[in-house]
């Protein structure tokens, strides 16, 4: 049997003595090791492990060091270099039991190299691209001494008013689940103990994306069927993929805040799903139980949260203040504390921190001289992933791709805005290291063409909005106003447009407009930019819109007036290059939107997989007494799964291997995809299923498979999908997952709206 003295030289002097003081701890056996350690811990030390502390603000480093040495901290976040983390780990190792801490951070779409925001990654429908983003983020973050990321964020979003739409992967449970699985595996690597692996803390459990009215932190009220069918699958997928941690949401669920929700954290997560990792509260969420009004005081809030199964408190003092007393009074059993501590120690064990507390921090002599050195970035990968994330929504008369010898007027407040390229939650990304569209187009044009640049407008002229967006950054405001009048800026842009062959207008939102606590009542491009666009349109020159934003905007004007529309979300460090690659045809766009684009706010929600109705609207028939709004066409402007290419694709009707699927068997659906255009390119073949009659009302269609296929001009390929009973299952009235016998439709298309159908029977 190996004992502690065999577990390596690096940490031996720091970790061995205290542990070895009692029974010999067996490092190679996780549960024995954790139990032996637990036995040696005082109640105070146990509670210390349940505290996750944010560095900065009311926790300056000096005080933190004292707390660490006193054994009062389990982990920290927001400290992101080896140089900063090393002394903190050393302080933790000076504590009586020398238990290492872990270091966490919001590495959501890249760490130093920033990849496209969640919506962008999802638009790629390419799991290799998603995995690349996740793996590189883990490599970079772990090289900075980090052990855990508060990601992936897999909240299903059907309401683009919600600012955090930008962080997630869209509206569809199947697509988001695929990405959740891919991301967890990419972050965590082959083994969590590897020096370049990060533990994933999947968030926000649960249903945060369904906050009422898209207003952040609002309530969620939802039927169990909808929860299980549509909103819970991505968290489940992340858990099944081995996510070591789960972050608990800030919202209530049917009247019970997630942070105090025993059903959620114990019955569902642990008992049903078998999760055995560590649960972490969101920022200050235990104190928020007071504001939710389910706890009368801090003591009760701490009791409710720990009883519900919330292991670690994030940036919240209540566990530290009340748990000891609650245990003393017999209101919280010691076993409850022990179980939570076990999860925290288990996570550290899995991360290899007991083997080597400096596994990711390394030795000082190996620290990078400059954490932001160019050599630490992964630019090529970022460019390749970003190119896949761009969605071409319009291309009238093939105005795109542009000619590199053209004279181009590049206008708009986002054409040269470094900070906005990053998108929200940009971890350790540095704005000045991003490539803007202006820089990239200039480079691509070289001396052949000509780029005329004018800002044309501020992102917004609404003072209140600017104040809101700069709230946390007064010293270094993110939204910088051009002091010139709107008229002057527009006149300059129009003059440039008049001299040009074509206009490229980079418009949309500042990154802060699609962020936590940035809910909007309007999905319009801000008025200042609309005025610019209308003036540009007047010039009669071809107008290409490059949209940068973190949610689907209202594009009705753009659809009717722009010649081309390219949705680029916030595309990251290499975003400018990626967009220029597409604008000039060096890369054929292949992104498909992972979320529907409503025509107006009034139409929300517009998700494609809605339940069937007794009085549905039928295209081409009068709308009276059907489910629709009478002022606007029914359905979204651009459906889920939509995106154009510079080439054309044709899809044959689906062929089925049989008309009957017997339980336990498989049925093959095949289609022939052909690139009928002149360019090589990729598209996404999407497979939807519809259950024609069931014991509960079923969705009009549900995505159950997709393939991104790259074809040379003129080439064709058979694309095959397998269907089994599993793809036909749903949660019935008893919440059993069942596939009920009867007729099903298979729908195959290149978006969710234009599909071709076949039927089969499940027997
Ligand atoms: C957010 C989380 C984030 C945490 C730590 C919270 O405000 O809701 O998504 O992980 O802060 O930064």
UniProtKB/TrEMBL annotation:
Keyword tags: Carbohydrate metabolism, Glycosidase, Hydrolase, Periplasm, Signal
Keyword Signal (UniProt): yes
Main location: periplasm
EC number(s) on file: 3.2.1.21
Top-level taxon: Bacteria
One GO CC annotation: periplasmic space
GO molecular function, one term: beta-glucosidase activity
SMART domains listed in its UniProt record: Fn3_like
Location relative to the cell: Periplasm
Domain spans labelled Fibronectin type III-like: 683-752
UniProt-listed InterPro entries: Cellulose_deg_GH3 (IPR050288), Fn3-like (IPR026891), GH (IPR017853), Glyco_hydro_3_AS (IPR019800), Glyco_hydro_3_C (IPR002772), Glyco_hydro_3_C_sf (IPR036881), Glyco_hydro_3_N (IPR001764), Glyco_hydro_3_N_sf (IPR036962)
Swiss-Prot/TrEMBL catalytic activity: Hydrolysis of terminal, non-reducing beta-D-glucosyl residues with release of beta-D-glucose
UniProt enzyme class: hydrolase
Pfam families associated with the record: Fn3-like, Glyco_hydro_3, Glyco_hydro_3_C
Signal peptide annotation: 1-20
Biological process annotations from GO: carbohydrate metabolic process
Similarity comment text for this entry: Belongs to the glycosyl hydrolase 3 family.
Name recorded for this polypeptide: Periplasmic beta-glucosidase
Organism: Pseudomonas saudiphocaensis
């Amino acid at each position: 049997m190996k004992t502690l003295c065999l577990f390596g030289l690096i940490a031996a002097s720091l970790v061995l003595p205290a542990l070895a003081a009692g029974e010999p701890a067996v490092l190679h056996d996780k549960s024995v090791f954790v139990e032996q350690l637990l036995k040696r811990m005082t109640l105070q030390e146990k509670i210390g492990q349940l505290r996750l502390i944010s560095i900065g603000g009311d926790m300056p480093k000096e005080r933190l060091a004292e707390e660490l040495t006193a054994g009062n901290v389990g982990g920290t976040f927001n400290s992101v270099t080896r140089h900063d983390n090393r002394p903190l780990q050393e302080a933790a190792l000076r504590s009586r039991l020398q238990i290492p801490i872990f270091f966490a951070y919001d590495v959501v779409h890249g760490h130093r190299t920033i990849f496209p925001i969640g919506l962008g990654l999802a638009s790629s429908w390419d799991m290799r691209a998603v995995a690349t983003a996740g793996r590189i983020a883990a490599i970079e973050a772990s090289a900075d001494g980090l052990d855990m990321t508060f990601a992936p964020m897999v909240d299903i979003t059907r309401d683009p008013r919600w600012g955090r739409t930008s962080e997630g992967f869209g509206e569809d449970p199947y697509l988001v689940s695929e990405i959740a699985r891919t991301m967890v595996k990419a972050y965590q690597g082959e083994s969590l103990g590897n020096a370049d692996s990060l533990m994933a803390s999947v968030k926000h459990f649960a249903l945060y994306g369904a906050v009422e009215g898209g207003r952040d932190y609002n309530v969620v009220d939802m039927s169990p069927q909808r929860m299980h069918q549509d909103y819970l699958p991505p968290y489940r997928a992340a858990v099944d993929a081995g996510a070591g941690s789960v972050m608990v949401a800030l919202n209530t669920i049917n009247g019970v805040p997630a942070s105090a929700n025993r059903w959620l954290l114990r019955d569902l997560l642990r008992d049903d799903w078998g999760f055995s990792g560590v649960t972490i509260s969101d920022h200050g969420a235990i104190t928020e139980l007071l504001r939710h009004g389910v706890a009368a005081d801090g003591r009760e809030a701490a009791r409710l949260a720990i009883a519900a199964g919330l292991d670690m408190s994030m940036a919240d003092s209540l566990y530290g203040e009340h748990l000891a007393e609650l245990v003393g009074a017999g209101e919280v059993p010691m076993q409850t504390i022990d179980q939570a501590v076990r999860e925290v120690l288990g996570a550290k064990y899995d991360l290899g921190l007991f083997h080597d507390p400096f596994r990711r921090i390394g030795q000082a002599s190996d620290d990078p001289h400059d954490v932001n050195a160019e050599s630490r970035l992964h630019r090529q990968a970022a460019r390749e992933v970003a190119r896949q994330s761009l969605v071409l929504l319009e291309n009238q008369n093939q105005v795109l791709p542009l000619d590199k010898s053209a004279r181009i007027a590049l206008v708009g407040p986002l054409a040269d805005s470094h900070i906005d390229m990053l998108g929200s939650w940009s971890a350790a990304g540095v704005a000045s290291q991003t490539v803007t569209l202006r820089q990239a187009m200039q480079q691509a044009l070289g001396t052949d063409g000509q780029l005329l640049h004018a800002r044309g407008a501020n992102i917004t002229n609404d003072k209140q909005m600017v104040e809101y967006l700069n709230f946390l950054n007064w010293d270094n405001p993110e939204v910088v106003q051009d002091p010139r009048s709107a008229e002057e800026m527009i006149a300059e842009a129009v003059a440039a447009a008049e001299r040009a062959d074509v206009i490229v207008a980079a418009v949309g939102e500042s990154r802060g407009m699609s962020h936590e606590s940035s809910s909007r009542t309007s999905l319009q491009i801000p008025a200042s930019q609309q005025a610019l666009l209308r003036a540009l349109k007047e010039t009669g020159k071809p107008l290409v819109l490059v949209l940068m934003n973190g949610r689907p905007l209202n594009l009705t004007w753009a659809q009717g007036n722009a010649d081309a529309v390219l949705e680029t979300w916030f595309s990251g460090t290499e975003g400018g290059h990626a967009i220029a690659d597409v604008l000039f045809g060096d890369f054929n766009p292949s992104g498909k939107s992972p979320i529907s684009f409503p025509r107006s706010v009034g139409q929300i929600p517009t998700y494609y997989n809605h339940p069937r109705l007794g009085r549905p609207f039928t295209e081409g028939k009068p709308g009276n007494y059907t489910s629709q709004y009478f002022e606007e066409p029914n359905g979204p402007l651009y459906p889920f799964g939509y995106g154009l290419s510079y080439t054309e694709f044709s899809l044959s009707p689906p062929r089925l291997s049989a008309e009957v699927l017997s339980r336990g068997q498989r049925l093959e659906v095949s289609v022939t995809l052909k690139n009928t255009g002149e360019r090589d390119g990729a598209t996404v073949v999407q497979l939807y299923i519809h259950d024609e009659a069931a014991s509960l009302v079923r969705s009009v269609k549900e995505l159950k498979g997709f393939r991104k296929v790259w074809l040379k001009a003129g080439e064709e390929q058979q694309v095959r999908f397998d269907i089994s009973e599993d793809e036909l299952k749903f949660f019935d009235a008893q919440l059993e997952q069942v596939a009920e016998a009867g007729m099903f439709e298979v729908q195959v298309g290149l978006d969710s709206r234009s599909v071709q159908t076949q039927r089969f029977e499940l027997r």
